[in-house]
Amino acid sequence: MSTRNSNYLSWTKASTLVLFTSSTLFLTACNDDNDNDISALSCSGNIAEITDCNNNFDTLYAAVDAAGLGATLSGGEFTVFAPTDAAFNELFLALGVTPAEFLARDDLADILTYHVLQGSVDATAAIALAGMMDNTARTVETATVALTLNGQDLFVNRAKVTSPDVMADNGIIHAIDKVLIPPSYFNIVETAQADGRFNTLVAAVIEAGLADTLAMTPDLTVFAPTDDAFTKLIATNPSFNSAADILALTNLSDILTYHVLNSKVDAAAAIGLSGRTTTPLYIAQDLAISYNEPALYINLSKVIVADVNAENGIIHVIDSVLLPPSANELSNTDVTIGALVTNLANAVDGAEFTTLLAALQQEGLDTALVGSGPFTVFAPTDAAFAEVGSVEDILALEDLASILSQHVINGAVIDSVSAFAANGTAVATLRPNTELNINIVMGALMVGNASVVVTDVETSNGVIHVVNTVITTP
Asked: Would you say 50 and 141 are in contact if contact means Cβ atoms under 8 Å apart?
């Protein structure tokens, strides 16, 4: 494969403010009043001649000419997924390059032939292929494209067909709204820039000064949060009002490098590492990898698109931003779990775990939790106990000791990362013959029927994770 130009360095922060609009054309309907109705324009001839004649394909025609493909597309029989001028302009803006710079790429011909299939494939055939189990088609470049349907819209990879079945003498043209990039042609930064789903991530990478690292370091794996993932973080974290707040973080570089492995790990290899932790570029905290069929998880984040190949590594798209876990502010490694629960329950202001302490004391388990351990305790809040009944009701339960015991894991400190890695498994509790199922459900860590709401309260003899429900179903 020829050497590629690296133009990502010309990206500017101002580019991140651009909003992209999506086409509203459908395969089954055209607006006769729309000047961009490509199929309605009176151009005829072979594929090269139509791209020359049709003013929606000026950049494509220039690229075909620059790559020396004009003669090829004037003969034979081909299907061309043709990016419009708007599609090229979107790519140029994302990469921060001029049309001339892009058309000077050594691999331009390969990029263009990735848009071309041998033979004629009309919209009907393409839609039929999109509905098959194997929905891929091999391009002239040799890599495959995937055809999918979303409602009435036909997509080629992530590009939407905006005008199908532009008939040429030697084949068919389908206009698309994005330029298709073959796997492994762009480096990781360029791949993220060109994709369109990672505007906030790219802005953060540039703000943190990591563009060189992620573009030039070989064999990286990046777990890439989408713009939607950043939006979710802002909506659920009171510290953030906008993406600008995230970009202003003093530990932004740490957060971003927590998403990066210094080796290439594809989805198959990641599944093989399920149940383990691994060290990212941010070496202060490990990442957990788990596979609970059919989903692959990194910590609590679900991999929604795996194996996006870049020139210098691989990208896995994730649905949540990864934040390096740290000890909770309630932590006190000078006291035991039993002592910390006692202290918190007896606090003058904001007392918590008063029902848990009363229950532990009644059943004689408070003394156990001041022992050497180590222990992992899933501690229900007072509100969690209140859902079961009054304090008197709780203390009157005949099996209270058993209920409390299934909130305790003896002999192991399971921090949050270790718990994430245990997704889809069960761990033995202090209650005899009882295991606690650990699962990740909709981005939350579940232990039995309870959701963990606070993690990593560290003590001298173990760790506490706060849960929002009394665990009654292990």
From this structure: no
Separation of alpha carbons 164 and 29, rounded Å: 10
CATH of the domain at 65: 2.30.180.10
131 shares a domain with 31: yes
State the pLDDT at residue 183.
93
Kindly give, in sequence order, each residue whose CB lies less than 8 Å from that of residue 450, ignoring residues fewer than 6 positions away.
378, 380, 384, 467, 468, 469, 470, 471
Q: What is the pTM of this model?
A: 0.85
Report d(CA 474, CA 472) in Å as an integer: 6
> H or E stretch including 99?
helix 99-103
Same domain, 360 and 410: yes
Whole domain around residue 232: which residue ranges?
A: 188-318
Same domain, 296 and 202: yes
| Best CA proximity match to 183, nearest among 10, 7, 318, 315 | 315
Residue 377 CA to residue 270 CA, distance in Å, equals 29
Give pLDDT, residue 473.
81
Q: How many domains does the chain have?
A: 3
In angstroms, the CA 375 to CA 368 distance is 10
> If the chain, 474 residues long, is cut into consecutive pieces of 10 residues, what is the mean pLDDT of each piece?
40 34 34 46 86 94 96 95 97 95 96 98 96 96 96 96 96 97 96 95 97 97 98 95 96 97 97 96 95 96 97 98 95 96 91 96 92 94 96 95 95 96 96 95 95 97 97 86
Residue 39: predicted pLDDT: 55
Task: Round to whole Å and give the CA distance between 284 and 253.
Answer: 13
- Same domain? 256 vs 169: no
Q: What is the rounded CA–CA span in Å between residue 326 and residue 415?
A: 10
The rounded distance, in Å, linking the Cα atoms of 335 and 341 is 10
